[in-house]
Design goal:
Layout (H helix, E strand, L loop, with lengths): L4 E6 L3 H14 L3 H5 L17 E8 L9 H4 L21 E3 L29 H8 L3 E4 L6 H14 L2 E4 L9 H10 L2 E3 L9 H14 L3 E11 L2 H5 L7 H12 L11 E8 L6 E12 L3 E12 L2 H19 L4 E2 L1 H7 L9 H12 L6
Parallel strand pairs: 1-2, 1-4, 2-3, 4-5, 5-6, 6-11, 7-8
Antiparallel strand pairs: 7-9, 9-10
Length: about 375
């Protein structure tokens, strides 16, 4: 379209690294590869391709990232995701010091510096002013799980600066009427909450649960246990930060079922931190049910995937959908986009229907 999508990034961790490396990877794709690109649901969305996404400012709190060019900071410790395109082009974007608030769990102090956050001894910048000065249009929230105060701080900054919010974490903002109405009143679109992976444990769990429903199998109990070795899993060792995460992942599966399972018959959430796994996530799923004649059936599945790249392609689609909404002067939550790409959207819609609605939204056939 000849026009860049100007994004701000909050949290220059593994997810941000995968996003920026992926943009560069697809920028260099050959013409024939772009017709059927590996790893993207859409190469083109409303005229926008991945390389139309341009970071214009970034925020973090780690001393190894703050004050450094963004193209270097995404490779600094404790980041440990797989390399997709390690030679990022130089840019003038320098990582700003953001407010810490509740963004760092105290228990991380007990772990080696190369595995955890190290808070920089700098004053936080004025987030609103940086957003305005950079002319950012969409802010991508990659804060750690449980960062309620910090997430709300950046959401308020978006409102003041007129910037859209893509809330990739399980802090409930977009799905809350108060915040939804605030952004609607401000006149900017938003998408959230809690990004789904391209093919992660939650989307796999939903698909299997939907198969039970579609085939007339009664699901009686289920669990999803996940392990990993990135800062996300280290952060989540503090179970007090997991309330919204567990709720988000559990609701994503419960919403598929005709009747929700009793709380003691469903367990979905992070299990443990295994440092040597680094950014590799291993998910274990089990579903038990009853088929014809009340005969039992059991399914177990194991998923192994690099965690952060698994959501980057989804974020690329969300950013472009959000920009289309800005172009069309749509405000507030994008219902179809959130239902397909987020675990805890304002409205849960079965994946097949949500995907169809997203395609209609991209073509401009429905408003949101």
């Amino acid at each position: 379209m000849g026009r860049k999508i100007r994004i701000a990034i909050v949290g220059v961790g593994n997810c941000a690294s995968s996003l920026l490396q992926g943009i560069e990877y697809y920028r260099h794709a050959r013409a024939e590869e772009r017709k059927n690109p590996v790893g993207l649901m859409h190469y083109e969305v409303g005229g926008y391709t991945p390389d139309d996404i341009e970071p214009v400012c970034a925020f973090d709190i780690d001393e190894r990232k703050v004050g450094r060019p963004l193209a270097e900071a995404v490779f600094a410790k404790p980041n440990n995701t797989a390399l997709i395109w390690p030679d990022l082009p130089c840019s003038s974007v320098i990582v700003h010091m953001g407010p810490v608030l509740d963004g760092v769990s105290p228990h991380m102090e007990d772990y080696p510096e190369e595995r955890r956050f190290v808070v920089a001894n700098r004053p936080p910048v004025d987030v609103v002013q940086v957003l305005k000065d950079s002319q950012a249009e969409i802010l991508i929230n990659y804060l750690p799980v449980g960062s309620q105060q910090a997430a709300e701080h950046y959401a308020c900054a978006c409102l003041e600066a007129g910037v859209s919010l893509v809330n990739c974490i399980p802090v409930f903002l977009v799905s809350q009427p108060k915040w939804a109405e605030a952004f609607r009143h401000r006149g900017v679109p938003i998408v959230g909450d809690d990004i789904k992976s391209q093919l992660g444990a939650t989307i796999l769990h939903r698909a299997l649960a939907q198969l039970f429903v579609d085939r007339g199998v009664k699901l009686t109990r289920t669990y999803q246990l996940n392990t990993g070795g990135n800062t996300d899993f280290l952060n989540m060792l503090n179970r007090s930060r997991l309330t919204s995460k567990k709720h988000s992942k559990t609701e994503a599966v419960q919403s598929i079922l005709p009747e929700p399972l009793p709380a003691d018959q469903i367990h979905i959430g992070p299990s443990d931190y295994v440092p040597w796994q680094e950014d590799k996530k291993i998910g274990f799923l089990r579903l038990e049910g009853r088929i014809f004649g009340n005969i039992p059936i059991e399914i177990e599945a194991r998923l192994v995937v690099e965690d952060s790249p698994n959501s980057a392609g989804v974020v690329i689609d969300v950013i472009r959908c959000c920009q289309l909404a800005r172009n069309r002067k749509i405000s507030g939550p994008l219902t179809s986009v959130a239902a397909y790409f987020m675990k805890h959207p304002p409205q849960q819609i079965p994946d097949v229907a949500a995907r169809s609605q997203v395609e209609c939204f991209i073509r401009g056939e429905i408003e949101r």
